[in-house]
Design brief:
This protein is mainly α. It is built from five helices and no strands. It folds into two domains: 72 residues, no CATH class; 31 residues.
Length: 127
């Protein structure tokens, strides 16, 4: 099997599973969506896979944009933190070790992703 086909197959599988999860959550939360999803069960298997894959792609894009928006807004930890800083009369805002730990974990994960990408590119070039 070609490595490009394998990557595409895995990506499609990821999108289908993400779409199925999204459809399940929608079904649990909204009775109208539940009926809509059950009515789609009568369609062909290929059509169901295509629908779930598309739903998975959309969910992935929404998740990426959400993460990117959070990434571009550092130190914005919600309304409770802003209420605490508004009542704080000192000149320096309180520091949080949780934020530092989260930042360190993000940096480690980013390094792991970069290493995996390099390894994947190396595998692609070797074949």
């Amino acid at each position: 099997m070609d490595s490009n086909n394998l990557v595409q197959f895995l990506q499609t599988g990821f999108h289908v599973s993400l779409g199925a999860t999204t459809a399940l959550i929608e079904s649990l939360q909204d009775p109208q969506k539940r009926e809509e999803n059950f009515s789609q069960l009568n369609s062909s298997f290929d059509q169901q896979l295509a629908t779930l894959e598309e739903k998975g792609k959309i969910t992935e894009q929404e998740a990426r944009s959400y993460i990117e928006s959070m990434w571009t807004q550092p130190n914005n930890s919600g309304s409770s933190a802003s209420a605490d800083t508004a009542t704080n009369t000192s000149a320096t805002p309180p520091t949080s070790t949780a934020t530092a730990n989260t930042q360190q974990e993000i940096e480690e994960l980013t390094a792991q992703i970069a290493a995996l990408r390099a390894e994947l590119e190396q595998l692609r070039q070797s074949e």
